[in-house]
Design brief:
This protein has strands at about 10-15, 20-25, 25-30, 35-40, 55-60, 65-75, 80-85. By secondary structure, it is mostly beta strands.
Length: about 90
């Protein structure tokens, strides 16, 4: 897998607290697999130093048909894409 981007804001829509859609990098994405909840992760971030991050891993596909796997986490104010993989 190739890492695409790190630490970019995203808008995520959820159904029953599970991600279903996302707006990221100027594109609309539709979640196209079953998201995996990430808890007590080893991720770190300048926004949350010294503690694990709550987030999700899922595959999403944009309107042009490009699919990526995303690791996203929730900060105090919004969602961020921690990693995106091809």
């Amino acid at each position: 897998m190739t890492n695409v981007e790190v630490e970019h804001e995203a808008t995520i829509w959820a159904t029953d607290d599970i991600p279903t859609r996302m707006f990221y990098a100027g594109r609309r994405w539709r979640v196209t697999d079953t998201p995996t909840r990430l808890r007590d992760s080893i991720w770190s971030s300048p926004l949350t130093p010294g503690r694990g991050l709550y987030g999700w891993r899922f595959q999403a596909t944009d309107e042009a048909g490009e699919s990526l796997v995303f690791d996203v986490y929730k900060s105090a104010t919004d969602w961020h894409v921690h990693h995106a993989y091809r």
